Amino acid sequence: MAGIIDQVRRLLRPGADFRARASDIDPSTLLPRPPRKIDLRAARKLLAGKSVLVTGAGGTIGSELCRQIIRFEPAHLALVDNAEFALYQVDLELKEAGHGAIISSDLTDVCRIEHLNRVFERTRPDVVLHAAAYKHVPIVEENRCAGALTNVFGAKNVFDTAIEHGAESVVFISTDKAVNPTSFMGATKRIAELYAQALDVAQNDTRFVTVRFGNVLGSTGSVAPLFKRQIEMGGPVTVTHPEIIRYFMTTPEAVQLVLLAASLDNADVPIVTHDGRVFVLDMGEPVKILDFAKRMIEAYGLAPGKDIEIKFTGLRPGEKLFEEIFLDTDALVKTGAEGVLLASPAMIDLPLLTPRLSDVVEAALEGEQSELDEAVHHLVPEFSANGEKASPARNKTNR
Fold first, then answer.
1. Residue 203 counted as domain residue
2. Residue 123: CB partners within 8 Å, gap ≥ 6?
3. Tens digit of pLDDT for each residue in 153-189?
4. Residue 22 falls within a domain, yes or no?
5. Quick check: bond before 236 cis, omega within 30?
6. Which is the catalytic residue, given 50, 135, 156, 177?
7. Is the pTM of this model over 0.90?
8. Can you give the residue range of the structural domain that contains 67?
9. How many distinct structural domains can be found in the chain?
């Protein structure tokens, strides 16, 4: 709480311009818990001296992965993204920090497997971190074919290419929205999880690690920058529902836990085998978005409901009141690493999964949304394309 008070005092200093205050707000101090201190010694064993490739390298998670990976002195770091300006920004940042000799940047769409093959042939990655995805629930809900192409077909291309080129391990960045999904985006991420699980079991050369976590505070499109912009404009601050809650992590914290989970079999006591299990990041207790909005308004020295109105806009298509990071049927196992748990979600064997996956990809490529919805439902039965399913009850994380 002291951190919030200090921020408010700074923001209210005499002569401070209201818009200038925005740059002084650190949303992470508004969370009801301190960030974790994470031991990343095992990550050095995973990454030091290796060729590492990151897809979605220009995104919030991808760029932070690159910043942290570079600290472990990889032999080479390949940045892959299809967004030119985002790739330019992280490329420039790393070069200005003196890492130009060991990085390469490829403007590549993960849906173009022939382009991916060229990147893999040139960089020969030992470790692949797949963060490229379409993640915004309402946009993917309205653009399902494009969402399935990137989130399913793109993931399949990256995974297949990694095996073909002899990568040691692939880390897939998933989401809590893949659990019991009500959104099409969540369903596509669950399908990619299923494929990673099946590949992990079906072969022993390339290890597949799937890591799930919730909302990243301050990421592109998240509530923190949205609320900042709305407060600067004088309101209203928009919240979809008074009871909606979400799990939150800071970007550095999320990435450090991803690297920790990915490197656990490099620890002194390996606990990971090729069994298709999924790592779940323990994000503590979820945060009510309404309470977070009030804290953020107050951090500007303003009064919620008086200086800045809070407006409820209603749940968006595919949106849940409560996010889940595991199913109640999952047997969670402690890994010995603080903040990282191991779940055992249902799997589909590769021979059964492959034709169903092909149906999803074919429908997406042809732009046939009704066929796509049906193919996705066949793979993820809990997903209802018409959105009639009610939001499930919330599970607990305090174990």
1. yes
2. 51, 53, 76, 78, 104
3. 999 999 999 999 999 999 999 998 998 899 999 999 9
4. no
5. yes
6. 177
7. no
8. 41-216+251-284+324-379
9. 1
